Amino acid sequence: MKSVVLISGGIDSFVAAAIEKKAGSEIYAMSVFYGQVHRKELECAKRIGEFLAVRNHKFLDVDLSWLPSSLVDADFKMQPSTSDIPATYVPARNIIFLSLALAYAESLDADNIVIGVHSVDYSGYPDCRPEFIKAFQTVIDSGIKKTAEGGKIILKAPLLTLKKSEIIKIGHQHGLDFSLTWSCYKGAEKACGVCDSCRIRLAAFSEAGLKDPIEYEK
User: Fold this and answer.
1) In the predicted model, is pLDDT for residue 83 greater than 70?
2) How far apart are CA 30 and CA 60, in angstroms?
3) Cβ neighbours around 130 below 10 Å, total
4) Distance between CA 149 and CA 166 in Å, rounded?
5) 190 has a pLDDT exceeding 60
6) Cα-flanking dihedrals φ and ψ of residue 203, to 5°?
């Protein structure tokens, strides 16, 4: 099998890619620089690809810096809302990333696309939910040449219903080196330890009974 895996540089995509590789797939990785302030994650994505010995690793530049999000504008402040969606939400980001991965997968005649989203203890992004994954599978089934001619590309989200601590335990069981990963939204040399992503990560390592191997400012 051939699988296109979106690798961000974080824990989730690392574990999702490792699961797919263990299942016997040849991994074709894709990572995207979209103008995020924490560009260090791309360096981590490269190291993750090397660790997993992926067949090929594409790095794309797609400028989303014009969108309202604190991930691409450190000074962005979301207007008051009744929604629980945080300021780090990037409009349509996973739709864009999956569309790019789908184009790559079809060009390779790949069997699968893998994304490391999960919907249990996450930041509240609407494009990390089961409904979204199901809907995008419908897009794949109805909108490309391969499926129109009777072929199939499966969208896999193997972590979708897992807690972050469970994901970390699976990665630990697979022998993954989490010191290669980056989760912080701040983009400094060390992780800040106080942003939402750092706090979720630290709490998950604690719940898993494991020590986070990266360094923190606080």
Assistant:
1) no
2) 8
3) 12
4) 39
5) yes
6) -65, -40
Q: How far is CA 6 from the centre of its chain?
A: 6
Q: Where are the domains of the chain?
A: 2-208
Which stretch of 34-43, 79-88, 114-123 has the lowest confidence by average pLDDT?
A: 79-88
Task: Over range 6-24, report the average pLDDT.
Answer: 97
Placement of tokens 């939402």 in the chain: 196
Instruction: Return the H-helix or E-strand segment holding 108.
Output: helix 93-108
Whether 94 shows a pLDDT value over 80: the answer reads yes
Burial of residue 134 (CB within 10 Å: 0-12, 13-18, 19+) is exposed
- Determine how β-strand 154-156 pairs with β-strand 2-6: unpaired
Residue appearing with tokens 């690793």:
57
Is-contact 40 187, C-beta < 8 A? yes
Distance in angstroms (rounded) separating the CA atoms of residues 112 and 1: 8
Spacing of C-alpha 57 from chain mean position: 15
CA 22 to chain centre: 18
Nearest CA among 67, 123, 63, 62 for reference residue 91: 67
Query: Residue 195: pLDDT above 90?
Result: no
Query: Superfamily assignment of 2-208 in CATH?
Result: HUPs (3.40.50.620)
pLDDT at 185: 87
Q: Which of 172, 101, 169 minimizes the C-alpha distance to 136?
A: 101
d(CA 63, CA 32): 10
